[in-house]
Amino acid sequence: MNPQITIATFNVREPALKLVAALAELGIEADIADDTEIQHDFMRLPAHAAVHVLVDKQDVLRGEMAMRDLQQTVQGLICCPSCGKSTVVFPQFSRKFPAPQWIYMLLCKIHFIEPEFYCESCHFTWSAKLPEPDTAHC
Ligand SMILES: [Zn+2]
């Protein structure tokens, strides 16, 4: 089994399903990882960057190139304001925060710390309070 890499991130599932279907038509197999329930049920956060489209590691470049041609299909893409990639997670877990993930989630839940977006590509973090970056294009 090949490791899978995130190539696209959305707030909701629908555009991710469209992207997976469009990639399949181009012969690129993709899967969806959906963290919506974790964010909503456990942390009581509105879903942000919760739906990820993943491809096998060897298909990352083909998938990213295909996404450029699928600009109309990939509406709602969440992109890093620093590098422009769509390898965004929310909230960012334990990369800068030394405590285990569950402590981080608890502190977010009680609003002791504010959750941030995190880019897995360039490690940039940004506040969820700021307006989301331009989601039309990465
Ligand atoms: Zn980035």
Structure description:
By secondary structure, this protein is α+β, with helices and mostly antiparallel strands. It has one domain (4-127). Helices cover 28% and strands 20% of the residues. It is built from four helices and six strands; from the N terminus they run E-H-E-H-E-H-E-H-E-E. The protein has helices at 13-25, 36-42, 60-69, 101-109; strands at residues 4-10, 30-34, 51-56, 88-89, 116-119, 125-127. The strands form two sheets. The protein has a three-stranded antiparallel sheet, covered by helices on one side. Strands 4-5-6 form a three-stranded antiparallel sheet, with no helix packed on it. The protein is elongated and about 45 Å long. The mean pLDDT is 82. The site of zinc ion has 8 residues, from loops.
What characteristics describe this protein?
138 residues, alpha+beta, three-stranded antiparallel β-sheet, 6 strands, binds zinc ion
> What order do the SSEs take from the amino end to the carboxyl end, as H and E?
EHEHEHEHEE
* Structural class by secondary-structure content: alpha+beta
Q: Return residue spans where pLDDT drops below 50 for at least 5 consecutive residues.
A: none
Spatial sequence of strands, sheet with the most strands: 1-3-2
**Number of helical stretches of at least 4 residues:** 4
The total number of structural domains is: 1
- What is the rounded distance between the termini? 29 Å
Helical content (DSSP H or I, runs of 4+): 25-40%
Largest sheet: number of strands, sense, barrel closure: 3 strands, antiparallel
The gross shape turns out to be: elongated
Q: How many strand elements? A: 6
Share of β-strand residues: 15-25%
